[in-house]
Amino acid sequence: MSGRVLVGVKRVIDYAVKIRVKPDNSAVVTDGVKHSMNPFCEIAVEEAVKLKEKKLVKEVVAVSCGPQQSQETIRTALAMGADRGIHVEVSGKDYESLGPLQVSKIMAALAKKEEAQFIILGKQAIDDDCNQTGQMTAALLDWPQGTFASEVSLEGDKVMVVREIDGGLETIRINTPAVLTADLRLNTPRYATLPNIMKAKKKKIANVKPADLGVDLTSRLEVLRVEEPPQRQAGMKVETVEDLVAKLRDAGKV
Amino acid sequence: MLLGLIPSRRLLSIRRSLIQCRSVSSANTGRKAAVDRVLSAFRSICGEDCVSLGEAIREQHGKDESVHKCRPPDVVVFPRCLEEVSSLAKVCHDHNLPIIPFGTGTGLEGGVGAVKGGVCFSLRNMEQILDLHQEDFDVTVEPGVTRKTLNAYIRDTGLWFPVDPGADASLCGMAATSASGTNAVRYGTMRENVMNLEVVLSNGTVIHTAGKGRRPRKTSAGYNLTNLFVGSEGTLGIITKTTLRLYGIPESMVSAVCSFPSVQAAVDSTVQILQAGVPIARIEFLDDVMIDACNKFSSLSYPVTPTLFLEFHGSERSLEEQVATAEEITQSNEGSDFQWAQDAETRNRLWKARHDAWYAAQALRPGCKAYSTDVCVPLSRLPQIIVETKKDLLESRLTGPIAGHVGDGNFHCLMVVDPNDPDELHRVHLFTERLARRALAMDGTCTGEHGVGLGKRTLLSEEVGPLAIQVMQGLKDSLDPKNLMNPGKVLLKGEL
C-alpha cells in the first residue's frame, strides 16, 4: 500500500462572519469577506497528520479545488503538517457552480493518479452543508466509506470507524483503500504556528486543471435564488413590561 | 418613589437616609431634565435605534459581574463609529452629563455603575478588526471586539493575543482596566501589550496616545500617555481603538499538575522554577479547600493539599527541558503526583479543575453568590499572606477557597456568601479590607488585576499615598475638568 492520504480542504467564508445576501439575490456576498479553511476540513487534516505522526501512513497530500486563493487554504494544511499540496484550478463561472459531484469526480481521478490509500474529507462544508462529496467519491471509486467518523483506527489492512449516527454510535470495520469523512468529535485540530507557517512556504503545491484529469465541470444544478431568512414581521418595540402585557392583551394572546 | 432611589443599606439609620433622599432627588430632577433636552440631539447623531431609555436596557448597562448593585444610567447610546462617539460626548459635555463607557460588562469592581446617572456609551456596535500586520506582530481593534473574537480571527496567521482574564472581555475594556490573566507570568498584562490608543476625551476631542497609526515596537517619544489611559477605568476618556502586541502561537504546549504538603513548598517551587529561567507560561495555585471543591464538582480525585497547575509553551525540545527542570524542582520541594500531558484532550482534562474553579467554589454552597478578592504581593511574601489569610477565613467563619497566579504573587479568595445574610456580608466586607491592608503592609497592592472601581478607592489612597493621589487628581482635573468621565470611580473626589 502506498501509505498516501489525500485530504480535501475547502476554502469557505469564515464561520464567525455575518453572512449577507447580494441585493440581486443571486448569491451570498463574498468580496472582501474573511475566508478560512472549512472547520471539518481542519479536523480531516488533523486526523491525517496524526496518522502520519503515528507512522501509520507515509504522506499527506492536501487538495483544494478553486481559484487562486485556494492556495492559502492549502498552505494552512501544509502548516498543520501536510507534506505537499495539489491545487485544482477552478475559477469564474465554473467555480460559482462547483459542487460535490464535480469535486468528487476530481478527487476520484486524483486518488487513482496518486495511488492513494485513504481519502479523508470533512463531513460537510459550512457554506453549502451538502454532506455529499465523501459519499459520492467513494461511490465513483467503488471504495468503502466511513462517514461521520468520531474515531478512526487502522487494523492491518482494515479500518475500524466509529460513526456518529442519529441513534448513537455505530462501529464498522471496512477494507482499504477507503474514504473517511470527519465529524466534529474526531479530534481537536492544531493551530498553524508561525515556525510551521514558515516551513510550509517551502513545501510544494502542484497546479492541475480539471481537464487534465478528464473531469467535466458542467453542473446539473442551477441556483435560482438566494434569500435571507424571513425578517421578523412588523415588530413593535416596547419600553416597559407593562407596555408588553398591555399589547399582548390587545392582541388577544393573554 | 423617593426612597426607591436610594440603594438599600441596612447599616444606615432611617434619618440619614431621609436626609440623603432629599439632596439626591433634587440632583436627579435636574439631571433628568438635562437628559430630556439632549435626547433629540442624541437621536440625530446616531439614529433612533441607537438611543435607549428602556428600563431593561439601562439595567443591563448599569452592572457588571461584581457584587456591586446595579446603578443604571439615565440613557444608553450605541454609537457606530468614532465620529458619533465624539459628537455624543460633545453634547454630554455641553449639558454636564456623566459619560460611562461600556464594553462587555464583565468587570469585577463595579466600574460601569452610573452612580450619578448620566449617559452610558455602549460601544458594542464598533466591532471592526483593523490593520492586522502579521510581520510586525500588531493589530488594531475597536471596542466591540472581544479577545476570543480576535484570536479566532487571527488563528490562521500563527499569531495570538495571550492576555486572558477569563471572561471573553472587550479588548478596549481590558485596556481600560489594565487586565491581566493566567499567563501574565510569561506574556505580561495589558500594560505591556497596548502600543497605542485612540481616545475620545470628555469634550469630544480625539487623541492618539502614541500618535495616529503609529506602532513601533518601542519608543522614547514624550510622556507615556498610552499607559496613563491603560487602567484609567473610563475616568479619563473613552477608548475607541487599541493597538495590541501579538505573539506567535506556541509550537507546542505541555500541562502539568503537582501536589505539595504545604503552601510554602508550592510557592518555593514557583520561585525556584522562575529562578531557573524556565519560561513558564502559566503557574496556578489552588489551596486545599479549592481542590476539595473541585474534586466534588468535577468528580476528580486530586489529593486534598495545595496544588500547582503548570503550563509550558515552546518547541518540542525546549518543552522536554522545561518539564524536566520543573519536575526536578517540585520533587526537591516534596511535591508528589507530578502528572503531565501534551495532547489537547489530556491537557484539558488535567486542567479541568482549574478551569472549573469558579463554579466549583459556588457549588460548595448552592444559592450563594461568589465574590473574588484580588491582591498581589512580592513573591517572597506570598506564603505568609496566604497562611495568614486562611487563618482569618477560619476565624471569620467564611468560605473562601483560594486560587492564585503564583508566578505574579497574585491570588484570589473566591468568597462564597449568602446574599441574604447581612452579618456574613459584613464579615466578608471586613475580611476583604483586612486582606487588602495585609497586602499593602507587605509592599503589595490592593488590586492585582481587577481594578479599583467603586470599592477600593480608599485603599488606593492608602496604597499610593496622598501626594501621588494629588498628582492623579491633577491629571484627572486636567483631562476632565467637569468630572463627567465615569464619576465616582478610582479617585475619591467627586463621589455622592
From TrEMBL, chain A:
Residues 25-217 form the Electron transfer flavoprotein alpha/beta-subunit N-terminal domain. One of its GO terms (biological process) is fatty acid beta-oxidation using acyl-CoA dehydrogenase. InterPro entries: ET-Flavoprotein_bsu_CS (IPR000049), ETF_a/b_N (IPR014730), ETF_b (IPR012255), ETF_beta_N (IPR033948), Rossmann-like_a/b/a_fold (IPR014729). It comes from the Eukaryota. GO terms for cellular component: electron transfer flavoprotein complex; mitochondrial matrix. It is found in: Mitochondrion matrix. It holds the Pfam family ETF. GO terms for molecular function: electron transfer activity. SUPFAM superfamilies: Adenine nucleotide alpha hydrolases-like. Keywords: Electron transport, Mitochondrion, Transport. The electron transfer flavoprotein serves as a specific electron acceptor for several dehydrogenases, including five acyl-CoA dehydrogenases, glutaryl-CoA and sarcosine dehydrogenase. It transfers the electrons to the main mitochondrial respiratory chain via ETF-ubiquinone oxidoreductase (ETF dehydrogenase). Heterodimer of an alpha and a beta subunit. Heterodimer composed of ETFA and ETFB. Identified in a complex that contains ETFA, ETFB and ETFRF1. Interacts with ACADM. Belongs to the ETF beta-subunit/FixA family. This is Electron transfer flavoprotein subunit beta.
UniProtKB/TrEMBL annotation, chain B:
Keywords: Acetylation, FAD, Flavoprotein, Mitochondrion, Oxidoreductase, Transit peptide. GO terms for molecular function: D-lactate dehydrogenase (cytochrome) activity; D-lactate dehydrogenase (NAD+) activity; FAD binding. GO terms for cellular component: mitochondrion. Belongs to the FAD-binding oxidoreductase/transferase type 4 family. PANTHER family: D-LACTATE DEHYDROGENASE, D-LACTATE DEHYDROGENASE, MITOCHONDRIAL-RELATED. Coiled coil: none annotated. Its EC number is 1.1.2.4. It comes from Crenichthys baileyi (White River springfish). GO terms for biological process: lactate catabolic process. The keyword NADP does not apply. Pfam families: FAD-oxidase_C, FAD_binding_4. This is Probable D-lactate dehydrogenase, mitochondrial.
